[in-house]
Design goal:
The protein is of the alpha+beta class. It has three domains: 175 residues, Formiminotransferase-cyclodeaminase, Chain B, domain 1 (2-Layer Sandwich), CATH 3.30.990.10; 164 residues, Alpha-Beta Plaits, CATH 3.30.70; 206 residues, Formiminotetrahydrofolate cyclodeaminase monomer, up-and-down helical bundle (Four Helix Bundle (Hemerythrin (Met), subunit A), Up-down Bundle), CATH 1.20.120. It is built from 17 helices and 13 strands. α6 crosses α7 and α13 runs antiparallel to α14. The model has no long low-confidence stretch (mean pLDDT 93).
């Protein structure tokens, strides 16, 4: 699965759209990156840009943007309401999908090093990318702002992490960081009272509320021994929040910033707000997302609400999103469009034609056409998809069977495991065709000079290896799916035992068919160690799949009678 990171650079220009456009034009020259948002502020004289894509491409786009900003923004003339210290003031990277914070930190430091060395701009690494605890806090790194840099940079304790310890009058300094994904999330209330909305926000947010003697609203503020206000912490970590009234909708809202959705996910914030509102005689009517959200957060919410109903979570991605939207009331104020609110959907390549997006007739026609792809590899993967889909169906039917309520979670686990396998096999349907196309592209490379011949041969070998690896992955996933079918044949809804049997037959076909593709593509690979190892593993998988198929069919036949 693709690794995705978000980058949110802040540039010290919010009035001249010509300058801003020059910067964003640089971003859009990089393939694999999508420019999601450009938000200029006149009073702050600052523009916040949001880009998402694969890591190497994102840091390339970010570097080009920082470079262009250093050319078109002159900090000696900058004035604005927002604290700032450079033409590119801050440039945080945020993990979005299939990437850890540790990996994101490495990318942030790589970007910081390049900015410092190639552009000669002093760079401080902050938050998770900080090298020292004192520099984790952005406000600390930015202390003194642009005007304080000449004095600050000569102090040993403020030597930049990258770049020269020398004042760059035109570009200032830049902070590059790695932080968690922030979700701006508003919860709708059936009241117009800002004060009551604020009270609920204070109940929830991590900072809580100021402690008072006696009356919680009018009582004297309690101070500690140093004279600082004492706070009563709220119930949720990594949450900031206030209450406000929205004239457009005629309701009060709790406005939350979820600064780390791995600590407090959206659905947890919603449930806690509903609980605290109810304690005050107020009802939550729905919620709204401001900006974007990762797909994972929506899927987790869908699973959470299904589990509350004792229902199987082994359903499709689209069904999980639908449950999340309805349960969180994300369509309370206006229609919720997943394709406009979920990051992964926003950056999907709409122009790419996928086999799995075709209807059944079109897929059959495409397979039957003169083109050699899709071929047996894609068909093997899709037969595997059909097989595990039957296994999932039996698990979900069993989960909801009357009188089997005590076992719903066991069947839900099987269905969820099956969905993971199904999604991977669906991906491999198209990946097998891509692997074939890679070989064709490699053979089409020029072969005039010796260096061209070498590069062409190398490309052919890499593509041929990949053409073996893809069907081998099909074998592995299809074989794994047979565990689901066996469990369903043994313990699932007896009325659907034949479906589990058909699923097993499909899985075995997928394993055997994919192995044929592994074997036929082996002829083009010169690395015999690689070939022999994969063929040996494949032969073992094929043997085990045959044995498991016999075992499952025997169980099915006995139950059918």
């Amino acid at each position: 699965m693709k690794k995705l990171i978000e980058c949110v650079p802040n540039f010290s220009e919010g009035n001249d759209m010509g300058i801003i456009r020059q910067i964003t034009d640089e971003i859009e020259t990089v393939e694999g990156v999508k420019l999601l948002d450009v938000d200029p502020g006149k009073a702050t004289n600052r523009t916040v840009v949001t880009i998402v894509g694969t890591p190497d491409e994102v840091i390339e786009a970010a570097f080009k943007a920082v470079k262009k900003a250093s050319q078109v923004i002159d900090m000696t003339r900058h004035k604005g309401e927002h604290p700032r210290m450079g033409a590119t003031d801050v440039c945080p990277l945020v993990p979005v999908a299939n990437i850890t914070m540790e990996e994101t930190v490495e990318y942030a430091r790589k970007l910081a090093k390049r900015i410092g060395e190639e552009l000669e701009i002093p760079v401080y690494c902050y938050e998770n990318a900080a090298f020292t605890p004192v520099r984790r806090n952005l406000a600390t790194c930015r202390s003194g702002e642009y005007e304080g840099l000449p004095e600050k940079l000569v102090k040993p304790e403020w030597k930049p992490d990258f770049g020269p310890a020398k004042f760059n009058a035109r570009s200032g300094a830049t902070a590059v960081g790695a932080r968690d994904f922030l979700v701006a999330y508003n919860i709708n209330l059936n009241t117009t009272s800002t004060r009551r909305a604020n009270s609920i926000a204070f109940d929830i947010r991590e900072r809580g509320r100021v402690k008072r003697e006696g009356d919680p609203i009018t009582g004297k503020i309690v101070l500690d021994e140093k004279g600082n206000k004492v706070n009563i912490p709220g119930s949720l970590k990594a949450v900031k929040g206030i209450g406000w009234y929205i004239e457009e909708y005629g309701i009060a809202q709790i406005s939350l910033n979820l600064t780390n959705i791995s600590i407090t996910p959206v659905h947890v914030a919603f449930e806690e707000a509903s609980k605290k509102a109810a304690e005050r005689g107020i009802r939550v009517t729905g919620s709204e997302l401001v900006g974007l959200i990762p797909l994972k957060a929506m899927l987790e919410a869908g699973k959470y609400f299904l589990k509350k109903q004792n229902r199987s979570v082994g359903v499709s991605q689209s069904e999980l999103i639908k449950i999340a939207v309805k349960s969180l009331g994300l369509d309370d104020l206006k229609p919720f469009k997943p394709e406009e609110k979920i990051i992964e959907f926003m950056i999907a390549d709409d122009n790419s034609k996928k086999l799995v997006d075709m209807n059944l007739s079109a897929f059959a026609d495409e397979t039957a056409s003169e083109s050699p792809a899709p071929g047996g590899g894609s068909i093997s993967a899709y037969v595997g998809v059909l097989g595990i889909s039957l296994g999932i169906m039996v698990a979900n039917l069993s989960s909801h069977k009357r009188g089997w309520d005590d076992h719903w979670e066991t069947f839900s686990d099987w269905a969820e495991k099956g969905q993971t396998i199904k999604d991977e096999l669906l991906h491999l349907v198209d990946e097998d065709t891509k692997a074939f196309n890679k070989i064709m592209d490699a053979f089409g490379l020029p072969k005039g000079s010796e260096s061209e011949k070498t590069l062409r041969k190398q490309a052919i070998q890499e593509a041929s290896k990949y053409a073996m690896e893809v069907p081998f992955r099909v074998m592995q996933k299809a074989f794994d799916s047979m565990d689901v079918m066996k469990a369903m044949a043994e313990t699932g809804n007896p009325n659907s035992v034949s479906d589990a049997g058909v699923g097993a037959l499909c899985a075995r076909t997928a394993v055997r068919g994919a192995f044929m593709n592994v074997r036929i593509n082996a002829s083009g690979v010169d690395d015999k160690v690689f070939v022999n190892e994969l063929l040996q593993k494949g032969a073992d998988l094929e043997k085990r799949a045959k044995e498991l198929e016999v075992e499952i069919v025997k169980i099915v036949d006995q139950k059918i009678g």
